[in-house]
């Protein structure tokens, strides 16, 4: 249909209203992200955490604002197909010179699908694929920072350039010893280069904005020498308010994957061109999906959009079916996966057997709490989807029967689009990274036998990490509730992460008690509880029978985490939180810190060899002393 037949001014005005709505969203998002620098400089940690939580809500607020405007001014839901098609074409035209076109396309999708009926999802009204390329996008403002800056030092004079790099961010406050920090980082870079000679292209590239998260600021970049590229990140912390220092030097893709993990809070970064930041970060972490990088930058809707495109692409280029996920089945969630795809799909069941006392609304509230809370590297991030559609032939009959039995309200099997293709439609699901269930990880060690040294090391590591995960969660004001091994998973980095959220509570809402002494011999011999228990009462001494039935597990647990069975541990941490303390966490091991043997300690040099892993005891909070101004609640 020709453009002049469908009220071009109406379509154009609708497109302009939507780009206005997006521009307002990103302006507010970027402003809040940029303010993280001031909060870091002034050590306003409570405000930093509050801003991280509140920023998550920005997107949905702006989408609703734009939806209301379109309905109020243009009666958008009543407009015919031709108007919407032309509105999209006008919108594409508005993105040609835009600096965030990929985000604006996602915003268009969000607004459109709020207004139009679900049956429109398969037509041309939304951006199924990107319409505007983000390649080589860069700012046109000569006064603005480019995406990254390049420095060209001499290998034997790295310290000078590193001083310039650290000062180039204009942080208010003074470095405790800038020369020392520059020397430490230079020495670390030289160790990474080993015996490599300086090549003609020798340079350091650093992203122009620092990455802020809670009490830390991260300088992210890479060293280039010939065909070798060394990714690195430098955590900048406060020794005391206004006194800065570089705490460590993190190198290589593995270190950065842990820093940008799906189990940590989102960074705040001032970015005019987010796609350029993502492209730079992909060069440091080529195995990390772009969707997860957008998530790490706080652009969760864009991450979700890209994830869905990746899922559709994977379905098109694979043939293995969805199945019931391995592991012990949960009472609240039905979990399925596809072996070739590294994510799991979680559907809330319709009914929950005793002793579960909850509802779908309460469970969704718990997941939302986790989304907004500081995940401290110990809780998996989730993506929430509605009306997911998959080809019926990709589902096993066993899985369909499982959903029909436990979550029939969430299942539809139909030819929704009228194209002759029968689909399985899931009304609501959470999707998160797949991990090895901790109980299966332990079972592998049990099956290998006590004489297997590798299995013994695996068991010891699992128990240590399990206790550290609980202690990190406690320090972040989270009580897991159900602490059974099956509710924790092991990442490919060996990190133990919690992923069952239906029973979590704030630590400050719990009442940790010692089990009262029996009143008489009858109480002592009774198999029943003889003392009163209120709703939020927790008795740490009772954890043992549920968790430590295996003697090998019990021995390892008591060596490293016996304090978890003592109410005093929980009460002391609870008191620190109630007093307003923001407890410290590090997304890297103690051995990486310059204050510990210059940051070059090997396994043999550490008092606790397990501390070599950035996911192990070195990361647990120091509960014996007040927190200093280090990054907390990672």
How would you concisely characterize the structure shown here?
This protein has 634 residues and is of the alpha+beta class.
Describe the structure.
This protein has 634 residues and is an alpha+beta fold. The chain folds into four domains: 3-120, no CATH class; 148-299, no CATH class; 318-434; 437-629, no CATH class. Helices cover 39% and strands 16% of the residues. It is built from 20 helices and 21 strands. Strands 1, 2, 3, 4, 5, 6, 7 and 8 form an eight-stranded mixed sheet that branches. Strands 9, 10, 11, 12, 13 and 14 form a six-stranded antiparallel sheet that branches. Helix 15 (438-448) runs antiparallel to helix 16. The radius of gyration is 26 Å and the shape is globular. Mean pLDDT is 88; it is low at 601-634. It is found in: Cytoplasm. One of its GO terms (molecular function) is ATP binding. Residues 320-588 form the Isocitrate dehydrogenase kinase/phosphatase (AceK) kinase domain.
């Amino acid at each position: 249909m020709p453009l002049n037949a469908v009220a071009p001014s109406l379509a154009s005005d609708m497109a302009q209203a939507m780009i206005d709505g997006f521009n307002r969203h990103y302006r507010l998002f970027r402003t809040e992200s940029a303010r993280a620098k001031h909060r870091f400089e002034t050590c306003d940690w409570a405000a930093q955490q509050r801003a991280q939580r509140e920023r998550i809500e920005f997107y949905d607020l702006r989408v609703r604002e734009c939806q209301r405007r379109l309905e109020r001014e243009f009666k958008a839901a009543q407009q015919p197909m031709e108007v919407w098609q032309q509105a999209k074409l006008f919108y594409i035209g508005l993105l040609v010179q835009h600096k965030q076109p990929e985000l604006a396309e996602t915003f268009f999708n969000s607004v459109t699908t709020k207004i139009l009926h679900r049956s429109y999802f398969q037509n041309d009204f939304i951006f199924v694929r990107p319409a505007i390329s983000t390649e080589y996008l860069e700012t046109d403002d000569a006064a603005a920072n480019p995406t990254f800056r390049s420095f060209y030092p001499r290998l034997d004079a790295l310290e000078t350039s590193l001083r310039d790099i650290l000062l180039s961010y204009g942080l208010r406050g003074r470095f405790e010893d800038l020369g020392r920090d520059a020397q430490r980082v230079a020495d670390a870079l030289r160790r990474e280069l080993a015996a490599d000679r300086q090549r003609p292209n020798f340079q350091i590239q650093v992203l122009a904005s620092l990455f802020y998260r809670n009490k830390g600021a991260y300088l992210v970049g890479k060293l280039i020498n010939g065909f070798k590229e060394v990714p690195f990140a430098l955590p900048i912390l406060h020794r005391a308010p206004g006194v800065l220092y570089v705490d460590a030097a993190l190198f290589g893709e593995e270190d950065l994957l842990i820093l940008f993990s799906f189990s940590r809070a989102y960074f705040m970064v001032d970015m005019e061109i987010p796609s350029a930041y993502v492209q730079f970060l992909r060069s440091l972490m080529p195995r990390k999906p772009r969707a997860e990088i957008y998530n790490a930058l706080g652009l969760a809707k864009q991450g979700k959009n890209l994830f869905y495109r990746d899922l559709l692409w994977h379905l098109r280029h694979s043939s293995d079916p969805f199945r019931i996920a391995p592991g012990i089945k949960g009472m609240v969630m039905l979990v399925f996966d596809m072996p070739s795809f590294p994510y799991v799909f979680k559907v809330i069941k319709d009914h929950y057997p005793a002793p579960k006392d909850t509802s779908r609304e309460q469970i969704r509230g718990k997941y939302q709490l986790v989304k907004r809370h500081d995940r401290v590297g110990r809780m998996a991030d989730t993506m929430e989807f509605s009306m997911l559609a998959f080809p019926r032939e990709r589902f096993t009959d066993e899985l369909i029967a499982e959903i029909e039995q436990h979550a029939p309200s969430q299942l539809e099997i139909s030819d929704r689009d009228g194209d002759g293709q029968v689909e399985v439609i899931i009304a609501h699901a959470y999707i998160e990274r797949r991990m090895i269930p901790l109980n299966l990880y332990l079972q592998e060690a049990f099956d290998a036998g006590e004489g297997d040294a590798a299995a013994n090391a695996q068991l010891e590591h699992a128990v240590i990490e399990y206790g550290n995960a609980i202690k990190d969660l406690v320090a972040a004001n989270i009580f897991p509730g159900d602490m059974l091994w099956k509710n924790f998973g092991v990442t490919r980095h060996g990190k133990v992460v919690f992923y069952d959220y239906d029973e979590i509570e704030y630590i400050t809402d719990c009442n940790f008690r010692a089990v009262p002494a029996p009143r008489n011999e009858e109480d002592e011999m009774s198999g029943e509880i003889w003392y009163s228990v209120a709703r939020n009462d927790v008795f740490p001494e009772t954890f043992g029978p549920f968790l430590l039935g295996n003697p090998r597990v019990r021995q390892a647990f008591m060596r490293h985490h016996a304090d978890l069975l003592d109410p005093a541990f929980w009460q002391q941490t609870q008191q620190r939180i109630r007093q307003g303390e923001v407890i410290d966490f590090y997304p890297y091991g103690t051995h990486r810190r310059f204050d510990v043997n210059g940051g070059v300690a090997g396994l043999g040099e550490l008092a606790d060899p397990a501390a070599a892993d950035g996911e192990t005891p070195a990361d647990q909070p120091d509960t014996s002393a007040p927190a200093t101004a280090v990054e907390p609640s990672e």
